[in-house]
Amino acid sequence: MPVQTERCSGDGQADRREPRVVVGAAIISAGRVLACARTAPREVAGMFEFPGGKVEPGESETAALIRECAEELAVRVEIGDRIGRDVRMAHGRSVLKVYAARLLHSDQPRALEHSALRWLAAGELHTVTWLPADVPIVAALRPLLAAD
Description:
The chain has helices at about 60-75, 135-145; strands at about 5-10, 15, 20-30, 30-35, 50, 50-55, 75-90, 95-105, 115-120. It is an alpha+beta fold.
């Protein structure tokens, strides 16, 4: 069941909208996951996240992730299963959904839109400061890395 939010229009009528979907890719390779350091906005610069972005109208979640990984990291990926739960963001206006992903064709990520990239094993996940929305995903990801 989708979560809905309400917004009042100029005439006071409630306008129901589903939250904007933001997708993230937990790119896993050799038992490690790729963490990407934000460059902006200033209040979160240097904090780490999973690469990804907003799902555009008419775009599937997996298509958005494939596009975002190409734009942000210059890599091709195969999208796998969801990791963790939906995470509410932006006072309920957005929801983050993270999927496992793997690199294709021996592609190597490049930091096109991030200040740094780090490959982290399960025991290293705590060595970076994650964006608050990514923290629950990190917890759900730990057993997947340990098993890889």
